[in-house]
Amino acid sequence: MHDSELPAVAALRDALGADVVSLPADFAGRKHADWSRTPSADPVALIRPRTTEQVATALRICHEHRQAVVTQGGLTGLAGGACMLGGEVALSLERMSGIESIDRVGSAMTVLAGTPLQTVQEAADDAGFMFPLDLGARGSCTIGGNLATNAGGNRVIKYGMMREQVLDVEAVLADGNVVGGLRKMIKNNTGYDLRNLLIGSEGTLAVITRAVLRLRPKPRAVSTAFCGATSYDAVTTLLHAAQERLPAGVSAFEVMWPGYYDFVLERLPELRAPLAERHAYYVLLESSGADPERQAEAFEDFLSDMLESGVIADAALASSEADAAVFWAIRDAPGEYPRLIPGRVSFDVSFSIADVGEAARHAQAQLREQWPRATILIYGHLGDGNLHIVVQEPDWPADTAPRVQAVVYGVTAEFGGSVSAEHGIGLKKLGVIALSRTPAELAAMRAVKHALDPLNLLNPGKLLPA
Amino acid sequence: MHDSELPAVAALRDALGADVVSLPADFAGRKHADWSRTPSADPVALIRPRTTEQVATALRICHEHRQAVVTQGGLTGLAGGACMLGGEVALSLERMSGIESIDRVGSAMTVLAGTPLQTVQEAADDAGFMFPLDLGARGSCTIGGNLATNAGGNRVIKYGMMREQVLDVEAVLADGNVVGGLRKMIKNNTGYDLRNLLIGSEGTLAVITRAVLRLRPKPRAVSTAFCGATSYDAVTTLLHAAQERLPAGVSAFEVMWPGYYDFVLERLPELRAPLAERHAYYVLLESSGADPERQAEAFEDFLSDMLESGVIADAALASSEADAAVFWAIRDAPGEYPRLIPGRVSFDVSFSIADVGEAARHAQAQLREQWPRATILIYGHLGDGNLHIVVQEPDWPADTAPRVQAVVYGVTAEFGGSVSAEHGIGLKKLGVIALSRTPAELAAMRAVKHALDPLNLLNPGKLLPA
Fold first, then answer.
1. Would you say A172 and A162 are in contact if contact means Cβ atoms under 8 Å apart?
2. Residue A1: what pLDDT?
3. Chain B contact set for A159 (CB, 8 A)
4. Which residue among B107, B245, B418 places its CB closest to the CB of A290?
5. 3-state secondary structure of B52
6. How many angstroms separate the CA of residue A389 from the nearest CA in chain B?
7. How far, in whole angstroms, is CA B134 from its chain's centroid?
8. Is the pLDDT of residue B3 over 90?
């Protein structure tokens, strides 16, 4: 044992070896912050296990030594959930990567938690299936991180969030006990729903090591349109009608407010405007299904009806994948934010679908009152009630962000919305979770945390305010 | 206070009045057993609150007096989850019944927990939606009971179990604190998933008082076929192809083994055989969607392809609702079991879809070996991996049931299946939960139970073995 080594680290190295447990000198320069750039301390050691047994051994030793642990996936989180506060060991699942098996009959895939999302998507595709979870970080984020944060993304309206893409989760609890495993049953009413409790717990209840993912039939055809509407009522009427009448259902319903639409078209000259006129709301509507010819016909009929009945004022129908890409490029413009609007304040909030229009109006009016010249971009997955709001002014004083947050989170609380639709709480949203959860709910969560991690060793200081 | 009254009961009557809290003399003859006919003791008092506040007051008082509570819904459970062991008060939600609001824009309905499922289905239908959960007990079972047991039923393959029909759940914890409420957000990543923890907890963690239910678009067309197949591989090929190719997806995929098919056709002369020949497997396939004409065409094309390519040996296509009813009557024959096969032993197990065929073969062979003359009926929701097995011999000795259970649960454990796919654990399956859950999982569940109900007052003795 080295002089400067902590007893916990020494015990971890004794049990797992120097290959699995590295000391700070071995990983100098390694990045520990996530995409939110929340500052992170350096860990006192880095554990990179190769097996669930090694994870269990590590947690058992940490438990004995009361050593705190932060689990790392792809470090693409947006809430600072994987950053370190000081004194923790980092547990990276990077070596537990790979697809273990694909069950074609059961439409299931067993993967290690460190597997990148994109690897899973590609393997599903190769096997003739689709894994529907999709988000911008797909190349770097891992299935374990997607599970720990209950990731959302682009296709929630049709397929649900990460929680609905999983048949079973294997995880190691704070005391080193392993729960869950390789079950592929869709129905299993035997006791409490530990699986959903661990999913979305952001590394504070367990370390997820493996999962059985649910695969879906691969869509054979995608129909896409870009629509203009004159009122929020018209937008929700379109959503409702699409859900009721499109034979293949709705796989995306992305709404953009004119401030967003005008901004991205002006600032990104490579984008093409799909519609000739300006409208009060823009909707990217997508339906994907099994029957190319009939689906295209039905989609076109539906759009004609919506135009004739005045639900939408205009629509452009994609007649090729290239057309659809033009529409999606407008919705995907946020990828350019770092260049276009540095220093922005961003929100990931959700509301009842009926409230989204009013909530957006209130937020915009209140922001505009305080910051008349600010760029205010509003858009979101309306089918899920999920709104993204981005606010920026070039020469803001340093203390502006908290004031902008006070406005938007204030409106969110007023409408009974969620301060975190899909990004989680981590460290960054600890101060606002109480706007979406009652004291009784937070107390119940603390009781559950204490039950499963009584020494508060797993990702301490995250998800639940002290 | 009456001489014979318990202090807890006296305090409940003081706080809530005699109208809400009845004494045994007032409810003599009232039934407390569920449909599983598990014997139940009589409660020491019956609480019938009208509001969530009254439920909270009742639980707070019970907590102070360490008085155990059993919550009653429609008493249609099949696992003895609502029966009393002696000394409990019964808390019936029968007066908290009714639909509070329907949100057409958000496709959501807010209901009190005591509302019967059928009332919810009908109100959804009247409002132009569908509430997809459906089971035989629909007229008597309540939404609160459906939530407490995470009910399954006929349409899980397309819409999921009760867990997936809910946006929020209001519940009263053991100490009288109220959690959850009237949130209608689809996405809400703010802390632990208390909602799913309470759903399926069978009244052991909280009393569910209200729910925001998710409504679905009403299908405009239903296509139905009855198919014969020669092998289990063919059955799973048909399932896979149907999921991939039917534009409206698969809304039912019910498989019947020949023992079942022959038995019900022989014993229920009012049934008509849909197919001329006998087959190794029978499949009731249903697809329901938005576009009557195109859907019917696509369904017919699909069946022709399956016949031509030899996946199925024969198929009857329903050309009317009456035809479909004839097919469904064969699958719904278990409603006649009480008359046809008294004294039967029934199972509700699940497996990976890939394992169902082998598991059924093993169970049947082992049962046949011990009881050569027994009636053995096998059928199930194959799309969910859910198998029902019913075994009976007219003049069985009284101790046969445990021996039959040992065989079927033995095979279930061997194939890593679930001993309770949809009926829950209650009291009846306490002895077998350990076949589907590991000691570490049961320990974690006990820790959660202790965290939320430290005095073990909510439905004690159920769901978790002592």
1. no
2. 47
3. none
4. B245
5. helix
6. 16
7. 9
8. no
**Percent of chain A with pLDDT strictly greater than 90:** 92
CB contact B441 to A (< 8 Å): yes
A169, A198 contact by CB (below 8 A)? yes
Find the mean pLDDT for residues A264-286: 97
Q: What is the pLDDT of residue B70?
A: 98
Q: Do A106 and B444 touch (CB under 8 A)?
A: no
Amino acid in position A337: Y
Q: A292 phi and psi, to 5 degrees?
A: -50, -50
First to last CA, chain A: 35
Q: Is there a contact between A400 and A409 (Cβ–Cβ < 8 Å)?
A: no
Residue in A245, A386, A418 closest to B190 by CB? A418
- Domains along chain A? 7-92 (3.30.43.10), 99-217 (3.30.465.10), 221-334 (3.30.70.2190), 341-439 (3.30.70.2740)
Question: A248 to chain B: which residues are within 8 Å by CB?
Answer: 247-248
Residue B40 near residue B84, CB atoms below 8 Å:
yes
R_g (Cα) of chain A, nearest Å: 23
Label the pairing between strands A89-92 and A45-47. Answer: parallel
3-state secondary structure of B183: coil
pLDDT score, position A216: 96
C-alpha angle with apex A422: A129 to B170, nearest 5 degrees?
105
List the single best residue of A63, A110, A155, A189 to mutate versus B (max B Cβ within 10 A): A189
Q: Kind and range of the H or E element at B301?
A: helix B292-308
Q: In one letter, which amino acid is B430?
A: L
What's the CA gap between B173 and B177, in Å, rounded?
A: 5
Mean pLDDT of chain B: 95
How many Cβ atoms are within 10 Å of B406's Cβ, its own excluded? 13
Does the pLDDT of residue A422 top 90, yes or no?
yes
Closest of A189, A16, A241, A218 to residue A124, by C-alpha: A218
d(CA B437, CA B418): 9
Q: Which residues 184-213 of B have a C-beta within 8 angstroms of A? A: 184-194, 196-197, 199-201, 205
Is the alpha carbon torsion for B69, B72, B75, B76 positive or negative? negative
Residue B425 CA: distances (Å) to CA of A154, A182, B378, B402, B434:
37, 21, 21, 16, 11
Furthest CA-CA distance within chain A: 79
* Tens of pLDDT, residues B24-78: 999 999 999 898 889 999 999 999 999 999 999 999 999 999 999 999 999 999 9
What is the C-alpha separation between B159 and B133, in angstroms, rounded? Answer: 8
Contact yes or no for B89/B67 (Cβ under 8 A): yes
Chain A with chain B: Cβ pairs closer than 8 A: 292
The answer to whether the beta carbons of residues A174 and A206 sit under 8 Å apart is yes
What is the ipTM metric for this complex?
Answer: 0.96
- Say whether residue A436 is in contact with chain B using an 8 A CB cutoff: yes
pLDDT of residue A154: 81
Interfacial A residues in 413-432 facing B (CB < 8 Å): 416-425, 429
